[in-house]
Amino acid sequence: xxxxxxxxxxxxxxxxxxxxxxxxxxxxxxxxxxxxxxxxxxxxxxxxxxxxxxxxxxxxxxxxxxxxxxxxxxxxxxxxxxxxxxxxxxxxxxxxxxxxxxxxxxxxxxxxxxxxxxxxxxxxxxxxxxxxxxxxxxxxxxxxxxxxxxxxxxxxxxxxxxxxxxxxxxxxxxxxxxxxxxxxxxxxxxxxxxxxxxxxxxxxxxxxxxxxxxxxxxxxxxxxxxxxxxxxxxxxxxxxxxxxxxxxxxxxxxxxxxxxxxxxxxxxxxxxxxxxxxxxxxxxxxxxxxxxxxxxxxxxxxx
Length: 303
Prior knowledge:
- By secondary structure, the protein is of the alpha/beta class.
- It is 72% helix and 10% strand.
- The protein has two domains: 2-130; 193-298, 2-Layer Sandwich (Alpha-Beta Plaits).
- Helix 1 (2-35) packs antiparallel against helix 3 (56-167) and helix 2 packs antiparallel against helix 3.
């Protein structure tokens, strides 16, 4: 491809040189013809006169002599014009060479611009690919975070299930041993007795110790009450609170009477315990069969 372009450039250079040379030659010839037109006219006139008067040979010699003299006088001008023509042709060749160099430079610049466009397009493509990969990475990070959260949740559920399984373990040995009818009857009796017995929550305060309160609870249990435990409070009231009429009210009256007897027997002195009806209690009530025993300001028992 480069050789073909070079051949075309040389052919263009030669064609341009020929055209310029021909144009200059025509201009010089026309100038010479215009300058020596009178010589031709004079020669023609002399030939005519010589033909008329019979001196053709003499006139022809004179005309030739003058023409040769005129031509020799202008040989210098013709030579100088030829030299000028050669200089012009040489300058044209230089200009054509410069044109060819400029054309080659222009083609090189065009090729470089094409390469730059290709590079820009490649960079744009790479940028788009990187942007797409960035979005994919962000999505993967989000999915990874979701999986990590899910793994944490699964681990928490696993721990919860393990804790539940530990709490609900069943003694298979006990299951394999079938209870006798007497044991079943005794269990039902104990269950019915427990369900029928009121539950008493003991609240105490004063100089009495927890050991003193536990002695009171033990005595109440012997009289058929269920006492889950004792709680120290900041109150000085002495009363039995109940929340429902009927059986709960009767149980509260019995608890108050039994408590006064127990306090007297244990050495706490003569203490009056009253009952308090909370049937209109505005907050959430406990279930039926629940009583509260408040013993505030109890003295400590002597050892």
